[in-house]
Description:
Blueprint: H1 15-44, H2 52-87, H3 118-148, H4 153-156, H5 159-177, H6 179-182, E1 187-191, E2 198-202, H7 218-252, H8 273-304, H9 310-322, H10 327-334, H11 336-347
Antiparallel strand pairs: 1-2
Helix pairs in contact: 1-2, 1-11, 2-3, 2-5, 3-5, 3-7, 3-8, 7-8, 8-9, 8-10
GO cellular component, one term: synapse
InterPro entries: GPCR_Rhodpsn, GPCR_Rhodpsn_7TM
Pfam family, one: 7tm_1
Amino acid sequence: SQSLAPLCTLCCCGFLNRTLAVVFMVSLAFAIVVGNVVTLTVFVQTRQSRTPQGYLKSLAVSLAIADMMVGVLVVPFSVYTEISLMVTTAPPSWYQGSSTSPASTSSLGGLVSPWQPCMLIGPVFAGCTFVSISTIFLMTLERSVAILRPLHKDALVTRRRTLLLILLSWAASFLLALAPLIFSSNFTLEYNECSRMCNYTPLLFGSQLPPDANILLLIPTFDFTLLGGTLAVNIVSFTSIRRYSQKRKLLSEGSLSDGGGGGGGGCPHRPSFSDIKAAKTIGILTFAFTASFSPIAVFVLGNVVGYTWCNFSFFAFWILTGNSCCNVIIYSVRDHRFRKGVTLLFQRDRSPPHGEKT
């Protein structure tokens, strides 16, 4: 029942450092919200809602919604807590070490007694992270069908299946995010003074971790399983793209006869250029998410075995949070149609001169 000694260091304590952190958080929240609002607007306004490209856009919309929730709920809550710590003497009830242990008062694993905002913010951040990686996995599967089975993609990728998989990914992601609270009574959620976010905190027995502390390993296990599957599917797709490109190059040089293959260099069912470019874009999304999530996985593994890593936890969590504003940058660089949609979006308010045709 005693508060732990302060764990914060030069990186995470002091009025100046908190002020800089608040400025960084506000800027990041603005970038996340604006970027994903633009993404949602551009994708929603497209007219390809019932085509395979439209189904890919539905997955991109799901990804943008998850990212925007981080900018609307998670980051502003950290800003509010940091400002509260600067202007008040007593830390809020959800601050690390300020809440009482729920193990003796709750029969639901600390889910309702006492309730505080971290019980909402923590699962939202974890759930949105899981939604992001599961959506990237689904996008990779959709592109692999378009690359490997282009003649069957209309039959395999349907509107109903796409929406069902999106709903399942959201439900499974938030169920996993709540797993430590649902299946254990030895965890709570507190605002961590190192990461400056709401994190799962094991309830210590003396100085020992609870016997079921390994349940936190579900988080990196789930993410790296999906990331590994995504990487494997990308390797298969890019291998097919490379083989097709080599055959097309040989055909153009006259070193390979057409052979009745329909002009595809021995590849009668060749993927379209847009399918290939979309697959490469999703590969970049996968690499960006893997790079941003890896520090979190290392931190969780170290936390389970008893390490604190205060400075590292701050950078790990906020690198992952910063990934929520990266997708719009990747779309803008890789997709000229997305850039055109953004241009049209910002030019819409400029009315043409009177009498001029639009």
